[in-house]
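[scheduler] slot 2 assigned
[scheduler] job type: sequence-to-structure, two independent chains
[scheduler] chain ordering preserved from manifest
[runner] begin chain α
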Amino acid sequence: MGEISSSNGNGHGNGNGNGVHASAHLGGDGRRKSCWYEEEIEQDLRWCFALNSILHTGASQYQDIALLDTKPFGKALVIDGKLQSAEIDEFIYHESLVHPALLHHLNPKTVFIMGGGEGSTAREILRHVTVEKVVMCDIDEEVVDFCKSYLVVNREAFCDSRLHLIINDARAELQTRQDCFDVIIGDLADPIEGGPCYQLYTKSFYESTVKPRLNEGGVFVTQAGPAGVFSHTEVFSCIYNTLRQVFKYVVPYSAHIPSYADTWGWVMASDTPFTVDAEELDTRAKRRMKGENRYLDGKTFASASMLSKVVRKTLAKETQVYTEGTAKFIYGHGAGHRSQPHA
């Protein structure tokens, strides 16, 4: 087995619990038939698919990085053993993360991205002609440089004069800045026990750091982890309930992402009501955006925010608030040396 990085909870590897390795399967003649990527989603559930090749692997001060050429999903970026995005369907995640917030805002000119080192979130924001300034704050310069070099689809975004790239902890950056933003986007890694960024999902962070940096009428949106029929109780419902304690209007929504092997969730929040209907979202998109979305339009967002009965019941009954002392995590463990909150 040619290991990319260690597996989770089985006593092998370096113990960072990232659950990713590549295994070579041999045919009867002894020749290698195929190489597979494998991620441990839960203790008794693994997700794997065939690889054409491993394009690059590396490690920064904060994270392990791999770029894989997969047979079903094209190039795939893997960080800390978690698939971040795949070439064939990353547009679903990034269109869902970015456009509902920007299109619900009356006139978004300034946007702050927490994380987003891959560049795809910035790429989607920069399609909006109203946007004058995007601040992308990621703590890991090596990941950003890696993505600049290997993810061709985002090179134009990295060169856009409206994009201001800052290498820093997003919490520290927001706390020390004096300016405010029309939209703040959380494109963070998932909250993992021992991982670097779970503190950026807490009520105290939303209340004392994020909300004060929003302009009047501002919108905050964050990725909120798995939101499937069984997986939504991991962190999605808790993040939703936490934002309800901080903002007057909160909208959870979700979409199926094939390469994640699950439905994924986002939560959008503001102190200004979300009153834009599907038709107006489409009108704003045509007027404000360059090019057409592949996935998201008004009707798609209306559908995405109409959650299934089982998820709605959980969200309605959720009482836990995400704090440093009562944090919830998705399956897996972060490396012990990553002690800083990461964005």
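[runner] end chain α
[runner] begin chain β
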Amino acid sequence: SWVPDGYVAEVSLFNYQQYRHIQPPGWKLGWVWSKKEVIWYVQGGQATEQGDCSKFKEIIPHSCKVNPEIVDLLPGAPYNRQRANCCKGGVLSSLAQDPANAVASFEVSVGRSGTTTKTLELPVNFTLKAPGPGYTCGPATKLDEPTKFTTPDGSRKSQAHMTWTVTCTYSQFLALRYPTCCLSLSAFYSDTFVSCPKCSCGCQDNSTKPGICVEGNSPYLGSVMNGQDKNGLASLVQCTTHMCPIRVHWHVKANYKEYWRVKITVTNFNYGMNYSQWNLVAQHPNFNSLTSITSFNYTALNPYGLMNDTALLWGIRHYNDYLLTAGPDGYVQSELLFRKDPSTFTLRAGWAFPRRVYFNGDKCVTPPPDAYPWLPNASTKSTISVIVPLVLWMLANPYF
């Protein structure tokens, strides 16, 4: 709608990513005004800085900055400042995990701008921090068909004067210089661990024993001198052989006649970071024969049409959807039971292990194929127990 010196706009953020969500401290949306606009008020959000409003004597704007940044309100904000889809602390769920909470919105009143569709100029240089870098936003594009609103009874439709859209895409390469998660593999009694980038700081006791990185810089999470990285997230990472904040362990636990069982453990080695609404994506050709899963939620992503080889796993609400900091309780785990397809099933040459693994949308470092544990289709002990008696029987019967 129009106001005497500008307009009132409704801004909505939609997270269309299937398995990447925006975690605390939440999203931060910014832009640059084309003219000398000011923000009179924000409903359902707030500008991070007011800026220089010294030219205004009576009514002081909410923000006078040329490049304002808007953040979401926290849960429990006053009712007179709330609106629909606000007040989540900037947290946006992934679309496949919780579509109802994958949208946020706020209302902003803009002054000192055009008051017609011909005189109003769109903002430029949109930015989205969630909460750190990684997103690149394109220019604002005006839609030919403005948004239409339907009354609750469905008898009338009203129309916005203008609607424009901005698309932001994510790049893990831009966001993180080093990996944030790694995959380790094991089968029965053999283990393979991944060597992630070493932490450039030492352990507290200056030895190789597990401890906390307290000096220098961590190459993947920024400075840990004061326990904070450049994005405001704590980054005290436990010194381990792999030096990863998150480790996903895929363990081939049992091999039955018609089924085989896998145990997945996600461990948090970061002493300064909890992971709320975490999720895990794994690609394996046998997910089309998944029979049961314990302790985790599951949905098939099907990125290749009818081929069901990619699974999205996440925690059960109020049970294990919150991955705690490093320590005795800093892990979640589940077991998956797969049915064997006799025409395609094998445990040889690393077939039992996933092709790709993502944690919270970030791709984990995986071992090279030649480092995968070698798994025979049958147990070694069973083979010896059958062959040895047969050889002894042949030696005792010279006429055989």
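[runner] end chain β
[qc] chain β: The domain at 2-174 is CATH 2.60.40.290 (Immunoglobulin-like).
[scheduler] slot 2 released
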